[in-house]
Amino acid sequence: MGANFLVCTDFTPANFSDVPEGAETFSVSGSPGVEVFTVYNIARVTEPTGKAYWPLNAGVDVIISVDTASKALNDLEVQVSYFGLQKAALGHSVLYLTGTDISLDVDTGRTGKVKRSHGDKKTWRWGPEGYGAVLLVNCDRDSFWSREIDLTSTQLTSLDDLQDMAPMVLSCDGPDELFDSHKLVLNVPFSDSRRMGVFCARGGNSLSDYKQVLGPQHLYYEVERRPGEREISFYVEGLTFPDADFLGLVSLSVSLVDTKTLPEVPYFTDTVTFRMAPWIMTPNTQCPLELYVCSVLDSHGSNEKFLKDISDLVLKANCKLIVCPWTENRNDRWIQDEMEFGYIEAPHKSFPVVFDSPRDRGLKYFPYKRILGPDFGYVIRETQFAGVSGLDSFGNLDISPPVTVEGKEYPLGRILIGSSFPKSGGRRMAKVVRDFLKAQQVQAPVELYSDWLWVGHVDEFLSFVPTSDQKGFRLLLASPSACLNLFQEKKEEGYGEAAQFDGLNHQVKRSINEILEDRILRSDNLYAQRCIDWNREVLKQELGLTERDIVDIPQLFYLKDSHAEAFFPDMVNMVVLGKYLGIPKPYGPIINGCCCLEEKVRSLLEPLGLCCTFIDDYLSYHKLCGEIHCGTNVRRKPFPFKWWHMVP
């Protein structure tokens, strides 16, 4: 019996106990619906022709296949006739068969629908020619009255939840009498039982029509087949994302078991394998859908003007603005640090998933309480023993656009994580987070050096912007050298007395001459430039970039207890909404009525088709060691590329 053939068995006629004495050869035939095949060693046996028969003692095996289920027990037969030297039939043996259709099928072809599979269902292969079913982690909350993530419940809380699960069909056609002495058993390995849940569907529109039959508390299930039932539907949910201790593959099987024997004997087993869909980040080059920002109140007032400027930018970019009120953020404005938006995808369904960082400050409950919901998932990785450092915030987590590195394609980009490299010791992102990101496999992480910064986040010195040319993007890097060179040019043009922070009443102004003559500031920026240059080489190597792909954005830093902070608002710490950029207003020296820093940045980015809007974030963000990117968070459109088509 088999998944692809209803009955598939083999026998050797010479081994039958009722072979007549003197038999030398045999012939075999089947009743309608039965196909007969012979297997033999061509070195020992010649296929008979005409009225000749198969030799009996030459190791000839007979294979029998049936492609339709029986209507009754033993309604199929195979007859073996035995012949002596005189070619007269000496006797006959009859083998009675019952055909059953037992098959476990899932969306192996990745079309979004379950189809009968005649291929390998036990293995899972990557690539455009690959195969194997995909499971979504059921990490959203489809029921409005439930307070928990769907995967935590062993009961279905909403019929909509079925759409998040992978359909699975058990074919079980055959005579009802057969199942009086045989049973169908679904099994899941112990190691996989906590990774997946299986619900049996009995039709209808009631939640009670669906019950969990496999999962952490159930390793096997005796299928309740009803008389005349040919197919039984199941729904499979993922319970955990790939991680350091989980490669992402899970399997389950069905067995037809003979209950008349002790111990019970499985006649046939069919196994299917799933891969858990990975959590996928989206880079700045993907279209923005929603921008999140916090409303806060400081000693100098609210950030109402900042919110208005962001609202205007969002309107230009044609995306949605979501303001997190003070009552929900508890005056924690760093919404980029709290969470990262991504998504999960299977051939039949995709939905966004917010990754909650280990950083638990005022926004601690916002992702779970306000973002988790119907078709919006949630995942978190928490540190168990070690404390949380500044590098665990998700301003220290970024993603490149798709790249190709020495022939190796990364069609979903590569994750960038700030770390303590190249120095020993120092701060590093929590291992549980790094392990999680690596385990997703589809966006191979790269660690950069960010511990030279006071806050320690990669968004303080880099950003990506989309372009309309063949490359499709540029990497922006903060550049002290570019800033000092620009100021030197302006000095030589006679503008040495033009002042940094011009227009700010609450900041001491520094002329270009003073900045260039400040040896400590120059030394600080030589150090900062060396740190950025180290990252520059890593990024060129790991992302396959050339100097033409990098734009140097003028920026100065100063050291505070051996770590660097932005001397003026950090312009690479921008929010990217398509071609519209919300850039921290640098308050640079005013020359001929224009800020020379703004003018320089426009000259670098606007020829690439980008629109620069400089937004004042000085008091509400910059003075608190952050900028616009730190204070906003963007959910973006998923990649059109299907992750299962890549080869990690």
TrEMBL record:
Q: Does the keyword Calcium apply?
A: yes
The catalytic site is made up of D337, H457, D459, C630
Do you know which InterPro entries this protein is assigned to? Answer: Cupredoxin, PAD, PAD_C, PAD_central_sf, PAD_N, PAD_N_sf, Prot_Arg_deaminase_cen_dom
Which reaction(s) does its UniProt entry say it catalyses?
Answer: L-arginyl-[protein] + H2O = L-citrullyl-[protein] + NH4(+)
Q: Which domain of life is it from?
A: Eukaryota
Catalytic class of the enzyme: hydrolase
* Domain Protein-arginine deiminase C-terminal intervals: 267-645
Primary location class: cytoplasm
Using the record's annotation, list all stretches that form the Protein-arginine deiminase (PAD) N-terminal domain.
16-98
Keywords, A to Z?
Calcium, Cytoplasm, Hydrolase
Q: Is Calcium a UniProt keyword of this protein?
A: yes
A GO term for molecular function: calcium ion binding
Domain Protein-arginine deiminase (PAD) central: where?
Answer: 101-258
Q: Where in the cell is it found?
A: Cytoplasm
GO CC terms on record?
cytoplasm; nucleus
* Swiss-Prot/TrEMBL cofactor(s): Ca(2+)
Q: What is this protein called?
A: protein-arginine deiminase
Identify the taxonomic lineage of the organism of origin: Eukaryota, Metazoa, Chordata, Craniata, Vertebrata
